Amino acid sequence: MISPFQVDFAGAGVAVAVRISETSAIRPGLIAVGLHPPRPTVVVVGGAAGLDPATRESLRPLFISGMVPVLERLGGVGVDGGTRAGVMSLFGEARTQVDASFPLVGVVAAGTVHFPETPGPEHGKAELECNHTHFVVVPGADWGAESPWIAQTATILADSASSVTVLLNGGEIAYADVARSVEAGRVVIVVAGTGRTADVIASALSGERVDERASVLAQSGLVHSVRADDPATLASLLESVLGETTTN
Fold this sequence. Notes:
With about 250 residues, this protein is α/β, with parallel strands linked by helices. It is built from 8 helices and 11 strands. It has helices spanning about 25-30, 55-75, 85-95, 145-160, 170-185, 195-205, 210-220, 230-240, and strands at about 5-10, 15-20, 40-45, 75-80, 105-110, 115, 125, 135-140, 165-170, 185-190, 225. Helix 2 links the parallel strand 3 and strand 4 (about 75-80).
């Protein structure tokens, strides 16, 4: 039985969450917390703890002026890894800063995160990001366990609407995140100039053979790039993709 529960951030907000143990429960779990497909969907993946403070701040306009306004205009939904780190915290902070109303869903592996009601810090576990409106808690005790669940949650949320994945920075897990989006037929926007995996894939899009995984992804025809200093182009591309509908 699916039983939603609240995550109380002690004055910093309250989110609604659901625990699921199998992929067949994703759709009923989302509906149980009030998220009804289809919704235009933006998945954000990339740098978490490995994102240095200077780079993190330089990415803020991409959220404030790029992604968040588009999601708000289209009545969309955001999906990410849900922890208080890197691009996930930027997504939550930007949504709150502009007083947006679209749902922001964090998909987290149960064994990797610390819930606010649990006493004391738990070694090796990350805090949940308090500006998210929803959490989907999935099985797993290792970082990256949530990756396939993020991809499937986005696909189910979008349903007959369109979805897009945005990669900023990122480490090894980012390759899997992008690959799963490509496997799902989802457009991926790589933000060049944000470092690490994003820059490697952007280089592959320019014809450089720097990493075989990046080259395979670049050849999919679904991966595009924008510059980190150009949130307007990011917004335009998002609007173009998300404004399309599919006929599944």
